[in-house]
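Q: Can someone sanity-check these two? First one:
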Amino acid sequence: MPQSEVGFHSVFSGSPGTGKTTFARLLGKILHALGLLENGHTVEVDKAGLVGEYLGQTPMKVEAAFDEADGGVLYIDEAYSLTHDTEDLYGREAVDGIVKQMEDRRGRVVVVAARYPQDMRRFIHSNPGLKSRFNRSICFEDYDSAELLSIQKQILRSNGFEASEGFLLRSELLWQKLYRDRLTYDGNARMVRTALEIALENQAARLVRKPDKARHELCEMLPEDLDGVEAQLREDHDA
């Protein structure tokens, strides 16, 4: 039977830390496993990786990015930055080059553009070629407090740490408070990673002060390891 081409170019919209980049890396592997992409690797670029220093250089940089991504996924982070300034000729030149390469390499490169939802709508409508080629859109919702706690548990477990019941209870209260105060939306999973970095520094300082340490204590997280975490996260958010 004749084969019909199906486009997989996608727009990923959502706040930072919601998993857009992680899923873009998985998408290449999935499409490769299905026999839809030759290699399945993911190449990540931003505006600096696509725009040249002078007019005429940009198409070469765009083509080079597509060459590297051939057989896989080209992930354009902060894609809206290419079109947010209507006077930016370099950004417009990059978009024109992207549209051309998407057509020339149909079936060989899957392009994923990512940014905040409102910015991505403007990006797609900035060029008729983009609107017709990006036929899939996935919105990555912000994580709630229970999901943030689950992410924290997973990160600890994957790194060989054990969380005590007191640590988990205090963590649950921490994420509930930050989520209630709408402070987690700008960081999501990234905020969890920052919180754990502070907690692990606290744990290290605690263990240094203890002369005799059992092996299991080196991997155990206690409630006091969360001291100062909330204050630091709030300060980082307000900075």
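And here is the second, same format, sequence then tokens:
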Amino acid sequence: MKVGIIGSGNVATHLVKGFWKAGVEIAVVYSRTLSAAQKLAAERGGVHVTDSLDFLQAPKADIYLMAVADQALPEVAAQMDVPAGAVVAHTSGTQPLEALAGLTGGQTGVFYPLQTFSKEKTVEWTDIPICLEGSTKEAEQSLEALAQRLSRKVVLLAGPARKQLHLAAVFACNFTNHLWGVAQDILQRAALPTDLLEPLVRETMQKAFLFPPFTVQTGPAQRGDFSTIQAHLQLLETMPQYRQLYEEITQSIQDQKEKA
């Protein structure tokens, strides 16, 4: 099985590294900027790089994975020429199969790895859930065979369910990371070392995997400790954006407690 990679950003970078490690042949890497494609393919020889979406003029791949921005999917798909019978799949958690409706020829699908990717940080693909959808049974089977080369957690997931999963992932990953950044900023303003919070963060996450998080919620909002809450709000008077976050999350915790 041969793969083509469309894109050169974070997801594309980790897909290329993951496929190489898994022994999957990469036939072609595309980027709008040829030098970016060359840089991505530079670790190994023999990979065709291109800034053209006419893949009929490149070594043939069985599956083309589109790791491009969500808003660019329809435009890029409409410009692609792929070999007959090839599968073209995007890697988005929110976009439907219909985002690739402009594709001429080929079957379409979704190959969505549920992970946060940064070029600087290596990931372990075997533990990353890969969510799949195909326009045909044949496309799904091809994507499933490819995904199983990378991961032990491969799931067939239709568009509406995938959108719900992506929404949950934003809360679990993006918002959590942002709040950790807020916490670090507060410490830095007070000239305190950020590593003081690391054991607390680790314990919080480990506990959240062992128990339903709402059932092990702690802190002043959960206890109804309004004097501490007011003291915190006073400290946040010079940080209005963080004060608003504090008030909204405190209210959410209190609302959840009342439902229990």
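A (reply): Looked at the second one. The chain has a mean pLDDT of 95. The longest strand covers residues 107-113.
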